[in-house]
Design a protein that fits this description.
single chain, mainly beta, six-stranded mixed β-sheet
């Protein structure tokens, strides 16, 4: 113990503890009173009770005021005081209508320390209030842009298309328009922009938005940029029965149109097919009017909605073929039938060489009596022509009425006619 007391370390520790206690005493108990000045404290209109709003009023002026305050307190407390913890406001609770009021400035200091307000640079401020008004205005797009060669701008849309604005009647009456402005030097691709909405008076001057409330401060502007291209109108021929593409000639008026769309769509579009014609059902050649149907996402710039196509397939003809292969099938067993017609003219449509094959292969017209009993006499029955050679799929038998004259009699027991 004696050695410990004789050591310098213990005395140093004791000296430190005593020094700390003295510092705490001086700062906390005997700390001197000092003053500090805080500038640019904003003065607010504190409508926590909702007096202004409940009376349909809105503040026009008095919002942009500041005060300088001097505060006193113990040095220790004053070191913790910050400007943003000092609140300055006016109480509008006794405002009764639209007018200009002189309201006292209230300075509120933090209550967790002992502070005292020494002075304030502003004792009263002028607050002007007016009746609240709401209007709805369309958002007008003010646009400046340059489009690169080979491109065009489509239908520009703005969202929202209108906005609600509320505020003092005096200020609201100054508003003439709500503007969304874009300025793009070179356009070659679709743009999606978010731009501020600016309020302007009738002279085009921008209005301060301090006293206004808007349901949207910005507008989303969509600028579709489309590539332009001139493409021909085409006619395609095919044979439904064989599934093959068929060569054919045509002319179209107008021969081409100007289209526009997203670059990827336009780059993959080299022609617009006006119509696809099934030659197996084509009865006649000549001119026909067809609607111009564009792929999804592509529009017509030149404005045509229909075109006239003149159809011609080289070597594709209509020819009449005579056939004497006339049959009656399924005659009732008690009767007998005799074909009285010698030949039937059948109209064929197809390539010349295929029609020659049809002539050589033969065409049969058959009547099916379906085992029914008929009174003896002469009848004309509808007959359906078919090719004996069923490979002639490129030749069409035109759908006309083909008939065969047939005489029907009863059989006798001995084979003689009754």
């Amino acid at each position: 113990m004696k050695k410990l007391l004789e050591s310098n370390i213990i005395w140093k520790i004791l000296a430190f503890i005593i020094a700390v206690c003295l510092w705490v005493y001086v700062v906390g108990v005997e700390s001197p009173i000092i003053e500090r000045t805080f500038s640019d404290i904003p003065i607010t209109v504190d409508d926590q009770s909702g007096t202004i709003a409940s009376r349909g009023l809105s503040v026009i002026s008095g919002m942009n005021n500041f005060v300088t305050v001097t505060v006193s307190g113990r040095r220790y407390d004053m070191s913790a005081l910050k400007a943003d913890s000092i609140k300055a406001y006016v109480d509008p609770s006794f405002i009764t209508g639209a007018a200009e009021y002189s309201l006292p400035v209230v300075v509120e200091l933090p209550k967790n320390r002992q502070y005292e307000l020494v002075s304030k640079s502003v004792k009263n401020i002028s607050v002007r209030v007016d009746y609240l008004m709401e209007v709805t205005l369309p958002v007008t797009l003010k646009q400046t842009y340059n489009v690169e060669n080979g491109y065009m701008v489509g239908n520009i849309t703005t969202m929202p298309s209108s906005i609600k604005i509320s505020g003092p009647r005096t200020e609201i009456s100054k508003i003439s328009s709500a503007i969304a402005e874009i300025n793009i030097p070179n356009l070659s691709a679709t743009q999606m922009l978010t731009v501020p909405i600016i309020l302007q008076d009738s002279a085009g001057n921008e209005l301060e938005q301090t006293y206004f409330e808007m349901d949207s401060l910005t507008a989303n502007v969509s600028i579709p940029v489309m590539k332009i291209k001139t493409v021909p109108l085409a006619v395609e021929y095919y044979n439904f029965k064989t599934g093959e593409t068929v060569d054919g000639d045509y002319s179209v008026s107008p021969p081409e149109i100007i289209i526009a769309g997203e670059p990827s769509l336009i780059d993959n579009t080299d022609e617009i097919v006006l119509t696809r014609i099934d030659v197996s059902t084509l009865l006649t050649e000549g001119s026909r009017v067809y609607p111009i149907t564009l792929p999804f996402g592509i529009t017509s710039v030149s404005g045509e909605t229909e075109a006239t196509a003149s159809i011609y397939i080289p070597g594709y003809v209509t020819e009449v073929v005579e056939t004497d292969l006339l049959l009656v099938q399924n005659t009732n067993e008690t009767q007998m039938s005799t074909v009285l017609t010698n030949t039937v003219s059948v109209r064929l449509r197809g390539y010349e060489e295929d029609i020659e094959k049809a002539k050589n292969g033969g065409i049969v017209l058959a009547v099916d009596l379906e085992k029914q009993v008929y009174e003896p006499g002469i009848y004309r029955f509808r007959a359906t022509p078919v090719f004996i050679d069923d490979s002639l799929t490129n030749v069409k038998i035109l759908n006309e009425m083909y008939e065969i004259e047939v005489e029907i009699k009863y059989k006798t027991d001995g084979g003689a006619v009754q």
